Amino acid sequence: PFDITYTSSQASWNASYDLRSAHTSSPLAIIYKANVTQETGIDWKQVHLILASGNPAQYGIVPNLTPWQLYYNQPVQSRPMMLQSKADNMVFNEVAVSDQKNIRIRGTSSINSYTQQNENQLNTTFDISIPYDIASNGKPHSVSLKEYTHPATYSYIAIPRIDPNVYLMAELTDYEKLNLLPGTANVMFENMLVGKTYINPNDATDTLKLSMGRDKMISIN
User: Fold this and answer.
1) Which residues lie closer than 8 Å to 218 by C-beta, 6 or more apart?
2) pLDDT digits (tens, 9 = 90+) for 135-191
3) pLDDT tens digits along 30-59
4) Measured between alpha carbons, how far is 43 from 58 in angstroms, rounded to an integer?
5) Using an 8 Å Cβ cutoff, are 212 and 190 in contact?
6) Three-state DSSP class for 114?
């Protein structure tokens, strides 16, 4: 007897959320969910799911920036002048300088730009102990992951030039520990479903701003 382990590109998951708030002075409840889809041709029966935020097919290679070498091209020449460096045996493209002071630069990647440096990327892994049945039909299967309760500061925002409505915003600080991924979220405020929003934790800010929907009780003019 032997086991076969393989990697398939026909299985994936994306994050989705439920945001719940009782009122503007209560913390924000975040229900972290995963939509798992697979079309491997084999129905998964009572499988143990381990979901990771990393992409196993994505390279973690740091790019290598090489300088562009510029030289003066005599306008009397009929063909591009090629310059070869003795240091790294690189061939550079033409830089044409005209009397009108218009400069055109064409650069090509050298062999050094394809030098690979492997980096270990940090992933968030979700190990789910509850077995699941997921059919091989490409339809998303909702899997609950975590539930957080996080302090939130609420404020209102309006941009009358674009939209005359007033929107309620929830601002979260110190949200990095939640390990959120980009995804859509259902917003429930005062025990009512008020709409959908999008969570993008990749913004390089110290505050995560979430739109909780329009507030029909406030009108502006």
Assistant:
1) 156, 166
2) 999 899 988 888 888 899 999 999 999 988 999 999 888 888 788 888 999 998 888
3) 888 889 999 999 999 988 888 887 776 666
4) 26
5) no
6) helix
Dump strand ranges (E) for 174-216: 183-189, 192-199, 207-214
Centre a 10 Å sphere on the Cβ of residue 164 and count the other Cβ atoms it contains.
Answer: 11
Give yes or no for residue 84 having a pLDDT over 50: no
Tally of CB atoms within 10 A around 33: 20
Residue type, 48: H
Q: Model confidence at 91, in pLDDT bands (50, 70, 90)?
A: very low
Q: Ramachandran region of residue 175, left (φ > 0), alpha (ψ -120 to 50) or beta?
A: alpha
Q: Which residues pair with 91 in a beta bridge?
A: 84
- Residue in 83, 79, 99 with CA at minimum distance from that of residue 91: 83
Measure the CA dihedral 32/204/202/33, to 10°.
0
Within 8 A by CB and 6+ apart from 124, the residues are 52, 53, 179, 181
Exposed/middle/buried for 192, CB within 10 Å: 0-12, 13-18, 19+?
Answer: exposed
In terms of C-beta density within 10 A (0-12 exposed, 13-18 middle, 19 or more buried), how is residue 38 classed?
Answer: buried
Please tell me the pTM assigned to this model: 0.63
Place of tokens 């949200």: 175
Q: Which residue has the higher pLDDT, 197 or 101?
A: 197
